[in-house]
Amino acid sequence: MWNKHFSTFLKSQDFSVSKADPCLFIRRRGDETTLLIIWVDDGIIASNKSECIAQFLANTRNTFQIRSNQPDRFVGITITRERNKRRIFLSQPDYVDKIVKTFQMEGCHPKPIPADPNSKLVKPPTQGDSGREKQNFPYREAIGSLLYLALVTRPDISFAVGQAARFVEHHDRSHCQAVKRIISYLKGTRAHGILFDGSKPMTVVGYTDADWAGCLDSRRSTTGSIFLFNRGPVAWCSKRQSCTAQSTVEAEYVAASETAKEAVWIKRILPELQLNTEGPITIYCDNQGTIQLTRNPEQRQKTKHIDLRYHYIREQQEKGQIEIRYIESENQLADILTKALPKPRFEFLREALNIVKVP
To answer: How far is CA 337 from CA 134, 152, 159, 239, in A?
Structure first.
């Protein structure tokens, strides 16, 4: 009811709802472009004319009790701006501190990476681990707290959190240690966040990758995808696939199809933000077989069993919505979302994704 009431007010102020996202409101009058993002009763407004913002806030105060400030914080996200360099940082250092304190990890030694590449989590025996550590550690609560961080500003922990989240119902000491390792990593990188650099505008570019049969329990693969705009991540995903891939090509093809869906949504919202939409969105893949399967729709003995819904990527390729291209594995940025990596590789990809220490 609140959303309906406030949306009615916004429409009276000449705002219209975005077709791509119901929480985005847009107003264009003459040479004015004003954007408003709503999260329940919080919002951020941006406009190319500062007087339009002032007028809108004045009109809003006549109907609602509101507080307005410079957007330094929004729903727990710290926004740091360097206007002279046209750079914006998004981070959550206060939220990281809260997690560390909540789970009594203040005295832990910071870890350089969130997941151990030398060990893989598996389902514990039926009897479980009745050890003291498991009994005293609030595993489900920790996963919930970490998921919010991984979804909002920290794609570098997405794989580690997603892997640990599979064992919420049934876990033992090894899983508790894995969660604590993530928190230890966050303690050492509490000031890290996403950097968006507007000094060198870039078009949207995507990366897709898969770790074939990475889950030792189900033997299912892990999809990793990420999209960058102005050099910073704007959308990412790390999740176990819903089907069992019988080859690396199939696993990569399924991941690419899921990535294409996100690309189509981004393609829809760009015109509403008056951003460049000419040409397809490029998606980089490091598997030549997947690229050939996307571009050549002929049916083969080894691929005819693939579910029809995953051929969605072919349709979007033909329509010119996306363009899948090859990239060397060493430059595949989505690799950080599919598996646990050693420190040098992890830090290289983290920096490439513009996840840096906020000044």
So the answer is: 27, 15, 5, 8
Place of tokens 């407004």: 45
Domain boundaries in the chain?
2-68, 72-200+343-359, 201-327
Distance, C-alpha 71 to centroid of its chain: 21
Could you tell me which of 18, 197, 187 has the C-alpha nearest to residue 90? 197
Angle between helices 173-188 and 93-102 (to 10 degrees): 140
Q: How far is CA 353 from CA 56, 185, 253, 347, in A?
A: 36, 18, 23, 10
Above 80 in pLDDT, residue 63? yes
Instruction: List the strands of the sheet with 77-82, edge to edge.
Output: 73-74, 77-82, 87-91, 192-197, 355-357
What's the mean pLDDT in 349-355? 97
Give the whole-angstrom CA distance, residue 46 versus residue 156.
28
Q: Which of 296, 353, 359 is CA-nearest to residue 324?
A: 296
Q: Quote the pLDDT of residue 302.
A: 58
pLDDT tops 90 at residue 210: yes
CATH homologous superfamily for the domain 201-327: Ribonuclease H-like superfamily/Ribonuclease H (3.30.420.10)
What SS3 state is found at 278?
A: coil
pLDDT tens digits for range 212-236: 989 988 999 999 999 999 999 999 9
With CA atoms as reference, report the closest residue to 292 among 322, 314, 308. 314
pLDDT score of 307:
62
The pLDDT tens digits for 79-109 are: 999 999 999 999 999 999 999 999 999 999 9
Cβ count near 202 (within 10 Å): 13
Are 203 and 245 within 8 A, CB to CB? no
Cβ partners under 8 Å of residue 318, min gap 6: none
Express each pLDDT in 50-59 by its tens digit: 999 999 999 9
Distance of CA 172 to the CA centre of its chain: 28
Answer yes or no: is pLDDT of 131 > 90. Answer: no
